[in-house]
């Protein structure tokens, strides 16, 4: 099985044909609330320009999370701010609301972390979650990410300030993540 697949999902590099669904997600309140520092909505042409600028700037890799049953995109995961000198990178993921709480995000994050450690000379991978995103916080903690910092009242949303929590997975986390990845890869699909 590929480094970027489990029994249920595949991580596939983003292609131009994926831009409409990425734009749709980018404009959803849920995406803006859970993933993005932005608050503005974009039409498809402006989104295409924004996406291109991201890759010209600090976006490193981006994959679509593809559900094997039906070959349908259910989310995206990407790395950014790669610093090969100091050995770190950030990742972020989004799973559409219909497919959340089914473990797909945990599978995607596990695949991405293992992939980055395997193919890039990095020491640690960061993931940030807003304090109100209890599902992400729980997933990160159970995957072995370590809380490294809390940025107090960093996020302003709907008139309220929230903390941003930064987690890290270190290269030695692979000892725990590789068996988890293998379990995801060998798990039978539910009928």
Protein model, in words:
The chain has helices at 19-27, 29-34, 44-56, 104-119, 134-142, 174-186, and strands spanning 9-13, 59-67, 72-83, 88-95, 124-130, 146-157, 160-170. A 7-stranded mixed sheet has the order 1-2-3-4-5-7-6, sandwiched between helices. It is built from 6 helices and 7 strands, in the order βαααβββαβαββα. It has 191 residues and is of the alpha+beta class. α1 (19-27) packs across α3 (44-56) and α4 crosses α6. The two termini are 21 Å apart. The chain is globular and about 40 Å long.
Regions with pLDDT < 50 over 5+ consecutive residues?
none
Q: Mean pLDDT, as a whole number?
A: 89
Using DSSP, what is the number of strands? Answer: 7
How many strands, which pairing sense, and closed or not: the largest β-sheet?
7 strands, mixed
Output the number of helix runs. Answer: 6
Strand proportion, as a percent range, falls in: 25-35%
Strand order of the largest sheet: 1-2-3-4-5-7-6
Instruction: Please trace the helix and strand order, writing H or E for each element.
Output: EHHHEEEHEHEEH
Helical percentage: 25-40%
Distance between the termini: 21 Å
Shape: globular
- The chain-level structural class is alpha+beta
Gyration radius, rounded: 16 Å
């Amino acid at each position: 099985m590929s480094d970027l697949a489990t029994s249920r999902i595949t991580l596939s590099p983003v292609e131009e044909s994926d831009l409409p669904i990425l734009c749709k997600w980018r404009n959803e309140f849920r995406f803006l609330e859970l993933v993005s520092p932005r608050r503005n909505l974009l039409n498809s042409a402006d989104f295409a320009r924004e996406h291109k600028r991201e890759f010209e700037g600090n976006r490193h890799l981006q994959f679509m999370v593809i559900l094997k049953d039906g070959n349908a995109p259910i989310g995206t995961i990407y790395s950014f701010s790669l610093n090969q000198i100091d050995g770190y990178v950030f990742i972020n993921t989004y799973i559409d609301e219909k497919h959340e709480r089914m473990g797909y995000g945990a599978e995607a994050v596990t695949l991405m972390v293992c992939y980055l450690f395997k193919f890039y000379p990095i020491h640690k991978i960061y993931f940030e979650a807003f304090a109100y995103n209890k599902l992400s916080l729980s997933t990160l903690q159970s995957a072995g990410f370590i809380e490294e910092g809390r940025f107090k009242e960093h996020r302003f949303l709907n008139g309220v300030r929230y903390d941003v929590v930064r987690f890290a997975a270190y290269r030695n986390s692979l000892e725990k993540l590789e068996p988890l990845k293998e379990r995801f890869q060998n798990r039978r699909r539910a009928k």
